[in-house]
Amino acid sequence: MSLDTPTQKPHDRLSATLADDLVAVNTLIRDRMASRHAPRIPEVTAHLVEAGGKRIRPMLTLACARLCGYTGDDHVKLAATVEFIHTATLLHDDVVDESEQRRGRPTANLLWDNQSSVLVGDYLFARAFQLMVEPGSLRVLDILSNAAATIAEGEVLQLTVAANIDTPEDTYLQVIRGKTAALFEAACEVGGVIAERDEKTVKALATYGDGLGVAFQMADDLLDWGGVDGGAKLDKNIGDDFRERKMTLPVIRAIAAGDADERAFWARTIGKGDQQEGDLERALGLLQTHGTLASTRDAANAHVDQAKAALTALPDDPIRDMLSDLADYVVARLN
Amino acid sequence: MSLDTPTQKPHDRLSATLADDLVAVNTLIRDRMASRHAPRIPEVTAHLVEAGGKRIRPMLTLACARLCGYTGDDHVKLAATVEFIHTATLLHDDVVDESEQRRGRPTANLLWDNQSSVLVGDYLFARAFQLMVEPGSLRVLDILSNAAATIAEGEVLQLTVAANIDTPEDTYLQVIRGKTAALFEAACEVGGVIAERDEKTVKALATYGDGLGVAFQMADDLLDWGGVDGGAKLDKNIGDDFRERKMTLPVIRAIAAGDADERAFWARTIGKGDQQEGDLERALGLLQTHGTLASTRDAANAHVDQAKAALTALPDDPIRDMLSDLADYVVARLN
Lengths: 335, 335
What we know:
2 copies of one chain form a homodimer. By secondary structure, the first copy, chain A, is an all-alpha fold. The first copy, chain A, has one domain (about 10-330): Farnesyl Diphosphate Synthase (Orthogonal Bundle). Helices cover about 70% and strands about 0% of the residues of chain A. The first copy, chain A, has 16 helices and 2 strands. The first copy, chain A, has helices at about 10-15, 20-35, 40-50, 55-65, 75-95, 110, 115-135, 140-160, 170-195, 200-225, 240-245, 250-255, 260-270, 280-290, 290-310, 320-330; strands at about 100, 105. In chain A, strands 1-2 form a two-stranded antiparallel ribbon. In chain A, a hairpin with a 2-residue loop joins strand 1 and strand 2. In chain A, helix 3 packs across helix 7, helix 4 (about 55-65) packs across helix 9 (about 170-195) and helix 12 crosses helix 14. The longest helix of chain A has 26 residues, at about 170-195. The first copy, chain A, is globular. The first copy, chain A, starts with 9 loop residues before the first helix and ends with a helix. Chains A and B meet through helix 5, helix 7 and helix 8 of A and helix 5, helix 7 and helix 8 of B. Chains A, B: This is Octaprenyl diphosphate synthase. Chains A, B: Pfam families: polyprenyl_synt. Chains A, B: It catalyses: 5 isopentenyl diphosphate + (2E,6E)-farnesyl diphosphate = all-trans-octaprenyl diphosphate + 5 diphosphate. Chains A, B: One of its GO terms (biological process) is isoprenoid biosynthetic process.
């Protein structure tokens, strides 16, 4: 979040508009992550849930429900559901990635142990399913349970293609649709479903969420290289994906554009995981040479445009404008 | 399974009676664990799902539905759901316990990696939720999502009380109700719910499942010490719980009955995890001295009796008799 403009960020405007709903979501989250029998659970989850995540996913559910004129309470439950699913995947991701930091704080697997992260993640998944049953909508259950399966599938796919330098772009898209966009999409879609809006509206919300989610993840993958002009600010937060041998779009495109010598470099560093002093710098240099940081930003922007185009089918409302600005901001923050 | 009587085991009689349904369950399991995008998933799950588990949980759902006169197809979906939940917990348990063998074969975390076990477990959980939504019964969803939360809570509780030699018996009961009996109970209960039976019948099925599950886990914990006269067959399959410092009933009762010297022994071996040559033998000797292997069997039998008593509220039917025999067998196999 390096962009500081005089105007408020779209995320903060949404937060302010949905303030009461967000308070209700936070209360529900704290309430439902409690466990009478296992005090370790709230310890681990509080560490993560209260670590100041931006609550972007639950905010999407709230915003979409409100935008569709929803006046009940179930959007709060579904927003908390979505945050629980997200938090559970974070706990499991940190085990899988052997991460030591998240949001600038030590990860749960480091503070407690991998066992706690696995099992507390399972608990949050189960809590999410309990919560999503409560509104009594089978359609909502269908959407969210499908999203959960797609997320898990995306995570497994990511694991199996890691270190494979022949990963094609559409596999990358599959991975990020699974690990990120599926939950954005479902979070938006259920907002329209509980408001009982027509199919066209629900579909538009889903399309917005998908575009936003894909753009968000592409931007994230770009930020891992320091943004569009990464080299300028090479620091210790840069290159995690390279070290973990993840095949993200900037790398996939650089390999495709590279010569035999460059391919050998990627085969050694990502394919075999043999990384030495200076390799990260060379990798970054190759991305810059082939312009794949900029072209990844352009790809993200195309998904932003898709997201914004979908919004035109929705009611003209200040919330709609904030959602549109939010889509822009996902990529704008890179500059 | 050391008991070989001339008569067929109750489990095998149930299998034979429910043969067509079980074939449908197996087909559905294979079908739903497939993933178009992530071939790693069926590899990992096939290893586990097809490793010749006894399918006891799905069989309970099938048996209870049939016993209640159910004639539809949804019991097959729910049986597969229950097996998916069970398989997911096995995958995660093996990561948590750092196990290397399950059912006499190397575990998935050893054959692939912990990452695959965590993520494929998540995939199976999500698949379970997708499947349980399909019958369209909110009551079934409520029961199974509650069971999933109780399972996760029990697993976390087990983790947090491991190595705590002051663990009381009711905490142990809480742990095994969570990690084992909750799914047995739900598996039975949903059979009655989809058959639309009255509350009394549904409650009786739940009580049967709970009693069976508690007895099953107590028997399992006893088998980890080699059964009621454990010492006679001390071999390498004995003592995993001791090495993992799990507080199971035979140990809890031996500590309660022991003197200061014995307490110091447990504090060193289980409390601190400082285990030396000969400690397992001494631990087993203490359980025998205090008769806690036999008293654990008695405790298991009390739950078997509870399970069988509940069955009297159910229709007189050969399946009911097999369920009753199954409860007996859970403990009888120890002798």
